[in-house]
Automatic annotation (TrEMBL):
Keywords: 4Fe-4S, Iron, Iron-sulfur, Metal-binding, Oxidoreductase. InterPro entries: DPD_II, FAD/NAD-bd_sf, FAD/NAD-binding_dom, GltD-like, Helical_ferredxn. Gene3D superfamilies: Alpha-helical ferredoxin (1.10.1060.10), FAD/NAD(P)-binding domain (3.50.50.60). The keyword Translocase does not apply. The keyword Oxidoreductase applies. Residues 25-136 form the Dihydroprymidine dehydrogenase domain. It holds the Pfam family Pyr_redox_2. This is NADPH-dependent glutamate synthase beta chain-related oxidase. SUPFAM superfamilies: alpha-helical ferredoxin, Nucleotide-binding domain. Residues 151-458 form the FAD/NAD(P)-binding domain. GO terms for molecular function: 4 iron, 4 sulfur cluster binding; metal ion binding; oxidoreductase activity. It comes from uncultured marine bacterium EB000_55B11. NCBIfam families: gltD_gamma_fam.
């Protein structure tokens, strides 16, 4: 009789891959979590209860077939687990590393709701695909037939790359344009190596090139080539440009030197770690070494900044957030990692202005308390009058979120409709924009979101583009 390998959650406890010691990891940019050993991955997968209605799958934006690939992993059938996992996810090893699983798949695991801890879904997903890379199972695209239609994709972030993969598999000629010199979008230049090592992203870019995706890097659409020219060169266009306009702070002293934008800071660090010559790192403008750092914000970007500052050798790193720990938008896991690495959180604190003449030397901080819930149900922070104080700082990093750039103006295309937040207006199902043959996906549609949603949108938009191209072909044949 076959032995049931699953439902072991009653006897086997949850175990994450080993986390490197804070004292060791806070000096380099290597990932924090180590790989599962094969036995551990099998053991942890065997904890899944194989529910009839898997809520983990429902709450994964890609609807990954999680219970089935957990079962295959528990049975040691890793190649089949990989085939199944990559069928719904273009970059499973990336999502396994950086999805906020506590809010998505793992946050809805039924065994947790029955008092046992959740299955470590993300770590198993990472393990399956990292093993597939090691074993040579991850292959470049070889389309069965080549088609003559071409699609231009603006933006080489996860949305654009996921769409490119899907279109190329169907034999479409794909060119991706990006203003940066490397593909990957925020996977390459936003997210630090301690969450996502860069060779994990680069090997994906290389594989797409090998499969026939053409990358036109250092090409800023709207500056180097007009949007109209790009449209006339291709049969369809996908816009996946992300959101990059940093939200600003006002207040006295906000134009002082030494108050910098989070993404400038993170990009400089990522570039330098990839071996680029970055003058702002060398001259100290975007370098925390030996400085008192204050980061303003409570999201994932703020967490990445504080942890980068620790690694650059800051004298002290403080994070100001206007609500409390419970109400932070950033992942709890990353906040805990930051605390372990030596970051000090100053909860219920908001910046009111800056001290310094020409150069910043401190942040004027208002102390806050939580008042009545707002329309979203979150308690609104209220200032405690008379409780202001100054937090000393040599470098202040603003991590308050991002807005979209004004694409209709930048691209001289007023007919491209946008929402009142400036994101591109698309059809909910097809991702088509107000311009025929032009689609959009990822953060430029959703606003600042997650990698897994960008992948989903990119895949869905690719399917709609294929349907559009097929319709065009049948019209031409009539
Ligand atoms: C610091 C930071 C940390 C994050 N951490 C996480 C995390 O841990 N987990 C998670 O799931 N998500 C995280 N996110 C969010 C995630 O990175 C984004 O949701 C995701 O990358 C969006 O993908 P995208 O393809 O829409 O855009 P992007 O990744 O932003 O890519 C857009 C690309 O378009 C290019 N581009 C823009 N305009 C033009 C133009 N005019 N011409 C040519 N190219 C252009 C850009 O250069 C860029 O390469 C983080 C974001 C930031 C900023
Ligand atoms: S893609 Fe993200 S949400 Fe989906 S199973 Fe993987 S880690 Fe969980």
């Amino acid at each position: 009789m076959a032995v049931n390998k699953m439902l072991k959650f009653v006897h086997v406890s949850r175990d994450m891959p080993t986390k490197r010691m804070p004292k060791l990891r806070n000096k380099d940019y290597n990932e924090v979590y180590q790989e599962f050993a094969a036995e551990k991955a099998e053991e942890q997968s065997s904890r899944c209860s194989q529910c009839g209605v898997p809520f983990c799958q429902t709450h994964c934006p890609l609807h990954n077939n999680i219970p089935d690939w957990l079962r295959l992993t528990a049975e040691g059938r890793l190649k089949e687990a990989y085939e199944l996992s990559q069928d719904t996810n273009t970059f499973p090893e990336i999502c396994g590393r950086i999805c906020p699983q506590d809010r998505l798949c793992e946050g809805n695991c039924v065994i947790e709701q029955s008092g046992h801890e959740t299955v470590t879904i993300g770590s198993v997903e990472k393990y399956i695909t990292d093993t597939a890379w090691e074993k040579g199972w991850v292959k470049a695209i070889t389309p069965k037939v080549e088609r003559s239609e071409s699609v231009g994709i603006i933006g080489a972030g996860p949305a654009g790359l996921a769409a490119a993969d899907r279109l190329r598999k169907m034999g479409i000629q794909v060119t991706i344009y990006d203003r940066y010199d490397r593909a990957g979008g925020l996977l390459t230049y936003g997210i630090p190596g301690f969450k996502l090592e860069k060779d994990v992203v680069m090997r994906r870019n290389d594989l797409l090139s090998e499969g026939g995706v053409n990358f036109e890097l250092n090409t800023n659409i709207g500056i180097d080539i007009s949007f109209h020219d790009i449209r006339s060169k291709h049969d369809a266009i996908l816009i996946g440009t992300g959101v990059y306009k940093a939200r600003e702070l006002s207040g006295i002293g906000s134009s002082n030197k030494g108050i910098v934008k989070a993404l400038d800071y993170l990009t400089a660090s990522n570039r330098s770690n990839m071996g680029d010559h970055v003058p702002e790192i060398e001259n100290g403008e975007l370098n925390a070494k030996g400085k008192r750092i204050v980061v303003i914000g409570g999201g994932d970007t703020a967490m990445d900044c504080v942890r980068t500052a620790i690694r650059q050798g800051a004298k002290s790193v403080k994070c100001l957030y206007r609500r409390d720990k419970k109400n932070m938008p950033g992942s709890q896991r990353e906040t805990q990692n930051a605390e372990e690495e030596g970051v000090e959180f100053v909860w219920l604190s908001a910046p009111k202005g800056f001290v310094g003449e020409g150069e910043v030397s401190g942040v004027v901080v208002s102390k806050m308390r939580l008042g009545a819930p707002d329309s979203s149900g979150r308690q609104s922070p209220e200032e405690i009058v008379g409780a202001d104080y100054t937090e000393d700082a040599d470098l202040v990093i603003k991590a308050l979120g991002f807005n979209p750039e004004n694409l209709p103006t930048l691209w001289d295309t007023p007919e491209l409709e946008v929402t009142r937040w400036g994101t591109i207006k698309t059809d909910f199902k097809t991702h088509s924009t107000s311009l025929p043959g032009v689609y959009a996906a990822g953060d430029i549609v959703r606003g600042a979101s997650l990698v897994v949603w960008a992948i989903r949108d990119g895949r869905e938009a690719a399917d709609s583009i294929l349907a559009f191209l097929d319709t065009q072909t049948s019209i031409a044949a009539e």
